[in-house]
Amino acid sequence: MGTKRSVWIFSCFAFGASAPAWAAEPKSALEALARLKPTSGAALVAEVQATEAACRGKLRHELRDHPGLLAEIERRLNAGALEDQKAILELERCFSAPKLRPLLEKALGIEGLTPLAAEIAGRFEDPVYVAPLLATLIGKKAECLRVTPNDPGAEACVWLVYALGPSVKKAGAGTKAEVKKELDGLDAAAHPKIKEVLAETLRSAR
Fold it and tell me: What is the average pLDDT across 14-21?
């Protein structure tokens, strides 16, 4: 949808905080966890970036679906500052789609996290995320019909509708039919971007 992965990072510092310091990649899972746990704010963003790089590089096998990383994400989602919650969710490349699903499902229900959680779910392009995305959207459908671009809930609505597209593309016929059924009527949404991404998602659900 044209939104870059790193865009949200810069919003963390819009009120005078300094940019995140660079952090070297951890050399082990234990080191990654030890560095992630005590940090917050800009330091956490830097550590997440370093850990995520390790998940794509030398530690890709050791960190894959690591229970300690899952526990750290859950801890932050249960009690953490919103920007720290956003930062920790960017560890998504360390996980398979099914393993991260319970935590992303939880994040979808946290006000302020819904847009990012939906975006991340869409990145996986996996049908396992159709159900939680659809359930969240159904709960917001009335709101999504009336929001305008300047309304607080607009971003969540746009990302929920959009993320269903890549998620449903490889799903079975029954799942695609359910998605089309639940999306029915959203073409009357007041927000033009919702209509735009709806058309893309409906094409994926064919």
Answer: 42
Phi, then psi, of 13 in degrees rounded to 5: -115, 20
Distance separating alpha carbons of residues 117 and 202, to the nearest angstrom: 21
CA atoms of 35 and 19, how far apart (whole Å)? 18
The answer to whether the predicted template modeling score (pTM) of the entire model surpasses 0.90 is no
Which of 141, 154, 162, 155 minimizes the C-alpha distance to 204?
162
Angle at 69 between CA 63 and CA 71, to 5 degrees: 145
Distances (CA, A) of 78 to 35, 63, 94, 167, 170: 19, 22, 20, 26, 32
C-alpha triplet 178, 203, 120: angle, nearest 5°: 75
Give the span between the Cα atoms of 178 and 158, in whole angstroms. Answer: 19
Q: Which two tokens stand for residue 159?
A: 């990302």
pLDDT higher than threshold 90 for residue 3: no
The separation between the first and the last C-alpha atoms of the chain, rounded to the nearest angstrom, is 20
Quote the DSSP letter at residue 25: P
Q: 143-186: per-residue pLDDT in tens?
A: 999 999 999 999 999 999 999 999 999 999 999 999 999 999 99
Distance CA 84, CA 195 (A): 31
pLDDT at 6 over 70: no
State the Cα–Cα distance between residues 95 and 74, nearest whole angstrom: 14
Q: Are 130 and 168 in contact (CB under 8 A)?
A: yes
pLDDT confidence bin for 132, thresholds 50/70/90: very high
Q: How far apart are CA 87 and CA 44, in angstroms?
A: 7
